[in-house]
Hints:
Four Helix Bundle (Hemerythrin (Met), subunit A), globular, CDP-OH_P_trans, phosphotransferase activity, for other substituted phosphate groups, transmembrane
Amino acid sequence: MATFTLDDVRQRTYKARDAWWTVLLVDPLASRLVRFTANRTRITPNQLTVGALLLGLGAGACFAVATGPYLLIGALLYHLSFTLDCMDGKIARLKGTGSIFGAWLDYIFDRVRVLACACALMGGQYGRTGNVAYLWAAVGVVFLDMLRYMDALEIYKVRNQMRGKMRAAQEEAAELELAVRRRRGEEAPASTLQDAFQSAALQPDPEADMEERVVGDNPNAALQQGFNKRFPWYARIRNALLRGRIRPHLISGIEFQMGVFIVAPLIAAALPGAIIPVSAVSAVGMLTFELIIIYKFWLSTKDYGRSMGKLEHRIADARAELPLDEGTPVASTS
């Protein structure tokens, strides 16, 4: 049987940055449960994913009852469901047992859990009060959850495409400029090509908010110049949060879910009618941070255009100094 320590769990499974809800309210418990599960059981990540869904459906069943005690139990079950949902990825990283199917299953079950709990929570309140606003609230919660994750995935995909093109252009420019130096008889610094490749190195960040970590001189920095110039104070706040592993996107899809399915039921157990106002506040917070992400993305596309323009000029200048056979592109920028 394995003998993973708590430090092993933290070092090998904690993300460099995560939602503050996860860092402060989930990881302290999840890490200890992961250590026990990895050392004492044969439970697989996919089994944990299924368990998380079942607990989420249990939370939904409690929400549907719509009375105070069941709202409290539903909120607790939802938190435990999310804890299991975090554990599956940690077990996969700790044991190296992750799979493409497991990632797909985790994503689909997350969406099913949100759909079921939104319908149960708001449907239960509608059944109790007859207020049709709860039905619209259910539609709003499901729509916002879908919008949030679709937008995050699309931005992540486009930024990957931009980084890939910048990487190819940087490598091509570096190779062509090195060839120009050699043709002139100049001795190129040994680190020239290596530094160019280093500047093209990217830090993968599969977080839900899809923000990019800025480390050293890399295309991520080039893609965020506009935002950093407009808001120089942002880097200080970001760095302070990152020291605690908390990402700057303070109200993401995770906090939105927890606001709707944990905070709102807890408050509503004592103050009936609080579910819609608390859900609305959570939605406004998430949308505010989503607009910030979209604004940063818009600025990064402008930075990308400027950066690619400079790289294309470097490539064109280098090609102009080389014979046709030597100026053949090394890597395509298209």
